[in-house]
Amino acid sequence: MIETQDSIAITVPNSHDENDNKVLNVAPKSNVTDSYYEDEKSVLLPIKELVLVFLALLLAVFLAGLDQMIIATCLPNIVSEFNSLDQITWIGTAYLLTSTTSQPISGKVSDIFGRKPTFLVALGTFIIASVLCGAAQNMIMLIVFRGLSGLGAGAIINLLMIIMSDVTSQRDRGKYQGIIGGVWGISSIVGPLAGGLFSDHLSWRWAFFINLPIGLITIIIVIFFLHLPRPTGSLGEKLKRIDYLGSCLIFTTVVCLLLPTNWGGDTYPWNSPQIITLYIASFIFLLILIYVETKVASEPIIPAQIFKVRTAIATFIFNLLFGMVFYSMVFYTPLYFQVMKGVSATESGLLILPLILGLVIFSAVAGLITTYTGRVREIIWIGSLISVAGAVLISIFFDISSTTGQQIGYLLLIGCGFGLVAQTTLLSLQSCVEIEYLATVTAMYNFSRIIGGIFGVAILGAIFNNVLSEGLSTYSQLSPGTFNLERARREPLYLWQLTDLDVRQNIMQIYVNALQAAYRLNIPHYDLKKTITQQNEKQ
Q1: What family does the Swiss-Prot or TrEMBL record give for this protein (predicted)?
Q2: I need a labelling partner for 254 at 20 to 30 A (CA). Which of 84, 103, 147, 481 fits?
């Protein structure tokens, strides 16, 4: 790190290779913003416009986060109305496929057509799709429109981070991104509650209609107050610049990768021909994508230049691992509460509020610290260490005998660690590349986290299911006829229907053993994240 009396350097994990990373000198303190914009050619908005634009971006991130979480508590009512339980997983799968794919593509499209037009198209797509979801007359229509909604939502998440980077200085960016992370966390809390309220008192359709008024307010603010330079060239010239082949290959690769990951161990066995074939196909399409992006495309969606920066590579891997740990924790911890306390899925989701609150609060804290100190690397290290401590405690002490205070404390601890690294890793990444690659690396940052989350949930799910099945099968042989083996495997709340308290306690312990085995996989992920950062610093 370079530091003088007149300037404060934004710390980058590796700043010693002249062909690799760069250290952005942000200062003097009295003129931080002006200095940054003179160097980076960003767009400085008047304070009133910046406040309004930031409000619009917060509304957009709240919409995207709400849309992801609100559907969970609406599913029972949707299934009851359409009588299509066998198709329920496709509601989430369709959304996941399109939202994941749209993130890397939207970054490059915004470089070609401009941030504002691309963001407005994404918002418009999302709003229209939400209204269509609310008006769906059958499950097929809902699945199709959820896919369209995911296309807009994925682009929104990516573009709001890019726009925020365009209109704020390097030093102030951490503060704003921390607040954005906090709003995302709040939407994760509000989503399930709102979905339950709409389903119980109005209709599940209002879970989608609610996006219309909020989305329209966001669009109006963006149209009138977000002023960004638009790329030159005619519409025809811009259309010719799009990497159509690369876009199709990204979509195909993601589909062939995500489908078997979601189906494995549930719809099909992991060693089934369907799963193996799709994984092989994803690898083949990935190789073709790499060739097209490096040898064929004139303006690739994923330029090879960004992979010449070691800090960028380290951050993508770090974020991939972060996604694996974070999403697996959010996915499987509610299951622990369902088994231990016999609560519903909605209630169990509320019981992980300490994790979300830790994430919200310390995401904002990390942003403020970065704004006023310029430190990034140290925050990432501290956040990783705190997360390791939380993961260890949860993997050991989240059992039958743990108290409510312990559960809250462990979840709050790991949430604090998540919050410290959630946004600071993006700041580190953005500071190590030239401004022309800012949109691309931001898109890849979001993309890597989602891919990591998908694999984390799948891998931990495989471990959990294997340990659970083995434990229940063994116990069934030792105590034949005392419980329904198949129901115990598929229905966590089934054990609370058992009248024999000893049998209930033993099945509960088997579930805890399976969850702890899955949680322990997160610990080496954190160690690997620290190692990646450490080795990158030494290079």
Answers
A1: Belongs to the major facilitator superfamily.
A2: 84
For the domain covering 42-234, report its CATH number: 1.20.1250.20
Q: How many CA atoms lie within 13 A of 106 on its CB side?
A: 35
Q: What are phi and psi of 25, to 5 degrees?
A: -80, 115
Backbone angles phi, psi at 138, to 5 degrees: -155, 175
Q: What's the DSSP call for residue 16? A: -
Is residue 60 within 8 Å of residue 156, measured between CB atoms?
yes
Among residues 73, 50, 310, the alpha carbon closest in space to that of 167 is found at: 50
The Cα 261–Cα 462 span in angstroms is 10
**pTM, two decimal places:** 0.73
Q: Which phi and psi (to 5°) does residue 8 adopt?
A: -120, 130
Q: Where do we find the tokens 């604090």?
A: 416
Decide if pLDDT at 147 tops 50.
Answer: yes
Query: In Å, what is the CA distance from 131 to each residue of 90, 134, 141, 147, 206?
Result: 19, 5, 12, 13, 9
Instruction: Give the whole-angstrom CA distance, residue 329 versus residue 388.
Output: 13
Q: Which of 522, 504, 479, 477 is CA-nearest to residue 400?
A: 504
What are the pLDDT digits (tens) for 381-416?
A: 888 888 888 888 888 888 888 888 888 888 999 888
Instruction: State CA 147 to chain mean position distance.
Output: 17
CA–CA separation, 539 and 526 (whole Å): 20
Cα(90)–Cα(28) distance, rounded to whole angstroms? 53
**Is pLDDT of 532 > 60?**
no
200: number of Cβ within 10 Å:
11
* Domain boundaries 305-539, CATH class: mainly alpha
First to last CA, the chain: 14
Beta strands in 360-417 (DSSP E): none
Q: 520 CB contacts (<8 Å, ≥6 apart)?
A: 395
CA-based nearest residue to 445, from 460, 459, 424: 424
- Angle, alpha carbons 517-522-526 (nearest 5°): 150
Q: Where in the chain is the domain with CATH 1.20.1250.20?
A: 42-234, 305-539
CB 99 within 8 A of CB 151: yes
Listed ranges 368-382, 477-491, 497-511; the one with the highest mean pLDDT = 497-511
Q: Cα Rg for the chain, rounded, in angstroms?
A: 24
Measured distance CA(78)–CA(208) in Å, rounded: 12
pLDDT for 145 equals 92
Query: How far, in Å, CA of 261 to CA of 458, rounded?
Result: 6
Cis peptide before 231 (omega within 30 of 0): no
Q: Give residue 139's identity as a one-letter amino acid code.
A: M
* Dist CA 519 CA 456 (whole Å): 11
The pLDDT-based confidence of 61 (bands split at 50, 70, 90) is confident
- Mean pLDDT comparison of 10-14, 56-60, 200-204, highest-scoring range: 56-60
Question: Residue 25 belongs to what H/E stretch?
Answer: strand 25-26
